[in-house]
Amino acid sequence: MKTEPFVIEQIYDAPIASVWTAITDNNKMKDWYFKLEDFKPEVGFTFRFAGSDKGVTFWHKCVITEVIPLKKLAHTWRYEEYPGDSHVTWELFDEGDKTRLKLTHTGLETFPQDNPSFARESFAKGWTYITGTGLPGYLAKH
């Protein structure tokens, strides 16, 4: 069983404050991420949202575990209907007038491996779209 984390890095043509706001302000997140019921970048805050794959809706339940303003946001990533426990970390690095994002998702192997929706490739596809299309598209307009 593969236990290595999924890691993706992107560089955005936006200052770090803009990227931080995009990943922590629920009103802005709705434009490029998931439609969260509520979100606050505070340790212990629980948020949930629905995502779908192959016509199946998956309810995510997440808890913020670490917040370092303008640098790091971390939270658990679980599914209400399935076993497994993973963790997502968003790290921001100032690259002058640009921002580098490093997203790390650990624990993917804890989800049911007989369900293709939980395959590493599914997470890679989702995170690649979110960080490579959704977020930069939002930042380009704001």
N→C terminal distance: 42 Å
Mean pLDDT: 96
- Classify the secondary structure makeup into a structural class: alpha+beta
Helix content: 10-25%
Annotation field: number of helices: 3
Q: What's the layout of helices and strands?
A:
Blueprint lengths: L5 E7 L3 H9 L1 H4 L16 E8 L2 E13 L3 E8 L2 E14 L2 E9 L13 H22 L1
Antiparallel strand pairs: 1-6, 2-3, 3-4, 4-5, 5-6
Offer a concise description of the structure.
With 142 residues, the chain is α+β, with helices and mostly antiparallel strands.
Overview of this structure, please?
The chain has helices spanning 16-24, 26-29, 120-141, and strands at residues 6-12, 46-53, 56-68, 72-79, 82-95, 98-106. The chain has 142 residues and is α+β, with helices and mostly antiparallel strands. A 6-stranded antiparallel sheet has the order 1-6-5-4-3-2, with helices on one face. The longest helix has 22 residues, at 120-141. The N and C termini lie far apart (42 Å).
